[in-house]
Amino acid sequence: MKVGVLGAGTMGAGIAQVAAQSGHKVVLVDVNEKAIEIAKSKLSKIIARLVEKEKWTEDFGSAVLGRINFSTQMEDFEGSGLIIEAIVENIEVKHGVFSKLESIVDEQCILASNTSSLSIAAIGSVLKNPSRVIGIHFFNPAPLMPLVEIIPAVQTDEHITEQARNIVDSWKKVTVLAKDTPGFIVNRVARPFYGEALRIYEEGIADFATIDWAMTALGGFRMGPFTLMDYIGNDINYTVTESVFKAFYYDPRYKPSFTQKRHAEAGYLGRKSGRGYFDYSENATAIDP
Ligand code: NAI
To answer: What is 190-273's CATH number?
Structure first.
């Protein structure tokens, strides 16, 4: 089965790798030519490293890369059995692409979104046949994180849910069914982890590095909340928090933070921009603005 992935950013490139290493022909599409170039070079480097570390043979590595076609044209999705959308977290933009997808692929194709926080029912509402919409939510980095949430919308046919789950299970992932509610399971549980850490900082109780140290050295977490937000991207993480906050009728438990908003606005997005709560540049020294 041919798999289409829309959006060649952090998540899309990882999902394309997962599908290709499981034997699928993959088409990875992005509107942005530069994003395609970055994804291509990132995937080549990751695969070369896996071969170098002898986790993959050279033949397997080149076969995986050879199975991924990079494109800027959604029309290249024609003939796919599953499309996973991983573009910006914006319902209007997602509506536009889902309507277009329906005109390209045939009736049997499953149309999935990797959204972290938007309603799958709302995404599917623009489709002529919304029974084939589903949430397939990976975690970052997709090739390494075993868990995938499968989120049927109220419109989703149960055979589509079963089929989608079987496909992702065959990719050696651990799937969990979640209801179509804001943040599903993991992102909802994670909101207070970030939110309280930001509030602790804003109340002047401790700085970023101290909070992270306490949570890792004392709390046993693998990453502290600020390191994790820098890993995810402050723009993405902020948008998800805002979306969950709105979706829960402005419940103050999920209130977004100005500290994070300002970091995102300043372009302090985290690792991907070289600076977030911490400095990732070559001459890095700890930052605590
Ligand atoms: P990203 O910003 O790294 O990549 C998004 C890509 O989509 C960009 O390359 C952009 O050029 C492309 N794009 C935007 N509009 C497009 C369109 N109309 N058609 C085709 N391509 C388009 O974003 P990221 O982090 O990969 O997130 C993508 C989705 O995955 C979002 O819905 C996000 O909530 C979700 N997600 C993100 C996670 C993370 O840790 N970053 C984890 C799990 C889900």
So the answer is: 1.10.1040.50
pLDDT for 152-193, tens place per residue? 999 999 999 999 999 999 999 999 999 999 999 999 999 999
Domain ranges of the chain: 2-177, 190-273
Inter-CA distances, 104 with 91, 101, 109, Å: 20, 5, 10
Return all residues near 24 (Cβ < 8 A) that are at least 6 apart: 1, 2, 3, 67
**For residue 32, which atom of ligand 1 is closest to its CA?**
11
- pTM to 2 decimals? 0.90
Measured by CA distance, the residue closest to atom 30 of ligand 1 is 86
Decide if 57 contacts 35 (C-beta within 8 A): no
Query: Domain 2-177 sits in which CATH superfamily?
Result: NAD(P)-binding Rossmann-like Domain (3.40.50.720)
Lining residues, ligand 1, CB within 6 Å: 6-12, 30-32, 35, 86-89, 93, 97, 114-116, 138-140, 232-233, 236, 240
Catalytic (active-site) positions: 116, 137, 149, 187
For 6, 43, 73, 160, 170, the CA distances from 128, given in Å and listed in that order, are 20, 35, 22, 16, 29
